[in-house]
Each structure stands twice: as structure tokens, then as C-alpha cells.
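hey so u asked for the seq, here:
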Amino acid sequence: MWIADQWKEYEVLDTSKGEKLERWGDYLLIRPDPQVIWDLPKHHRGWKKPDAHYHRSTKGGGEWEFFSLPEQWDIHYRSLTFHLKPFSFKHTGLFPEQAVNWDWITQKIRQAGRPVKVLNLFAYTGGATLAAAKAGASVTHVDAAKGMVSWAKENAAASGLSDAPIRYLVDDCVKFVEREIRRGNTYDAIIMDPPSYGRGPKGEIWKLEDMIHPLIRLCAKVLSDDPCFFLINSYTTGLSPAVLTYMLSWELRYFNGITDAQDIGLRVASTGLVLPCGASARWEKQA
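ran it, C-alpha cells below
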């Protein structure tokens, strides 16, 4: 398992009965987590006095209960700064477990010893985009949600990357890649974090289990002749690291590289154990 254990301003303090107690900078949040199926004693006193608590509804969805949480605050990871705010579906605008991939992305770009063009699909609020840009890459950041792209720009500005070579696009990721193939544009690295389920503007159903392999095959067509890496993140429960490895290895078999995939996770302070938070697959150029 790859563990995001280099945070200074974030930590999972405790977990019990379907929820996790987290420290986000100066604030304590309680949020539901489907992986927390255990019923352990709640050791941390923060359970009794959080700054905000997201309550899951038995009918689906849920709502926040606020005590002393501001509308927006910042959190830092290494030299990056992220704006956070609570919004629907329990999110804050950042997935802290992804820091383990940001570090890997940074390492691969710096080791390349040459200019690296990165394509970040389903790029959300830009964690991977900022890591890649800070490491010296030029990045094309694509997300279908205008609000998320605007948020990514704000994070870039807060991280001192306003003038970095980042191209922000509000677009359907699949259609964008199809157009890039027709244009003959290529990239040295691809990052993707596709959703488990969703609907397109015309009601099209997106189900990751059905779409992930065609998406990998499509994206392989915009890789340069000498690619650096290909990273896939998945929060779909049934999509195991072994399955991700198989698909990625097959579609990139003509390149000289190796694939590894693991669960990713966060250390829980109260127990020292690791909370699983999805899976990632990494293909990298073989030395």
C-alpha cells in the first residue's frame, strides 16, 4: 500500500462506526467513510467538539452541521497551498491521500531531465496539476466542471503558480482526447482520476467499470514516442489494483515500461493502522 504520510497540516485522528475524525489545519471535521465498517472505541476528545460534522442521510446524500468552521480556509502540503471549503457530498475540495501520488509525479518529472508535457484529466481542484507544474512540467488541466477549474486556478495562484505553463480547459475529457488525437497532439505523461459514476449533459451514463478500459486505450494514442508516466486513480470499490495493472500494462505494452498498482491510504493516529482510500496504478518508463 502507498501511504500519504508526509502531511504536516492534515491527519486522520480516529475512525469508528462509519465515520472519521480529521484535522484539517486548525479545524476538526467528522465525515462519513464507507471503508470504516468497524465499531471501535472513540479515543479522541475531538469527537465531542468538532468544528463541523457531515451527517449522512438514510435516504442518500446528507448535510453539514457547522459549529465553528469558516466558509473557506487554507491548508499546505510542502510548497503547495490549497483553498478548502465544505460543499455537498461531504467534500472539502481536496483528497489528502493523493499526496502520495503528488510526490511520485514530482519525482518522475524531475528525473526526466527534459521538458515534460502532462495531461491531467478529470483534474478537479488541481492537486496533481500543481505538483506537476511545481516540478517544472507544462500541464493541460481538463475538467467538465467550470467551478472546479476556477478553484484549481485559485489554488495555483495561492501556490505561486499563476504564471506557470498550465492550460485550463472546461471540457468533456473523452471528447477532448478524441480531438487531440485528430490534431496530432501528444503528451509525455497522463494523469486521470475518473469518477465512479456520473451523467453527461445529455443524460449519458458514465460507469467507470464500463468506461475505464476504452479510456485507457484512447489516452494511449496521445502519448508521445518517449513517455514518462501514466497514472490512474480509482475510488471504485470493485476496481482492484490487479485489474488496473492488467489494463494499463496491456495498452502500453509497446512502450518500454513497467506497471505497479496499489491501494492508497492514510495513517490513523489513534491506532497506527492505515485507512484505505482507493487505488492507484502507475506506469513508468523503464530505465
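The CA atoms of residues 64 and 180 lie 41 Å apart. The helical segments are 99-112, 127-134, 146-158, 173-183, 208-220, 241-251.
lmk if thats what u needed
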